[in-house]
Structure formats: structure tokens, C-alpha cells
Design a protein that fits this description.
Blueprint: H1 3-24, H2 33-79
Length: about 80
């Protein structure tokens, strides 16, 4: 997933969660725009973190796959 997609998706979820929280409290949804900004920035940061974790895990899986394939080739060469 692209970085902008991850950050924007999590930020959108933060804004929606803020609106839902205000709705539960029976407060006007348009009150407190700073809260929306805080929610968007905080969950956008979470999205950035998740994106970086996903990239690191992808690289680790690629390295592990290369090791496993090399081991398989070596084992097949020994058997032959």
C-alpha cells in the first residue's frame, strides 16, 4: 500500500472517530475543529508507522524467502 494511502486512510478514520465521539456525547459535530486536527494528525502518524512496519516486514520476508530457496537448491544438489 502506498504511503499517502495509508496516512490518508488512518487520518480519515481519526476524523470519523472524532465525529462519532461528538455524536455520542450529543455535542454539535462542527464544534472543536482543533480536535479534528489532533485526531487526523495522531492517526495519520499511526498510518505512517504502520506503513513503515509493513515495508520492513516485506523486506524481511523477501530475505527469508531467498534463504529458504538457497537452502532448497543446496539440498537438491546434495541429493543429486
Amino acid at each position: 500500500m502506498a504511503l499517502i494511502t495509508s496516512v490518508a486512510g488512518f487520518a480519515t478514520f481519526g476524523v470519523a472517530a472524532r465525529a462519532f465521539a461528538l455524536n455520542i456525547q450529543r455535542r454539535p459535530i462542527v464544534s472543536g475543529f482543533a480536535g479534528y486536527g489532533v485526531a487526523a494528525v495522531a492517526l495519520g502518524g499511526v498510518g505512517y508507522f504502520v506503513h513503515n512496519v509493513e515495508q520492513r516486514q516485506s523486506e524481511l520476508l523477501k530475505e527469508r524467502k531467498e534463504v529458504l530457496l538457497a537452502n532448497r537448491e543446496r539440498r537438491l544438489a546434495q541429493d543429486a
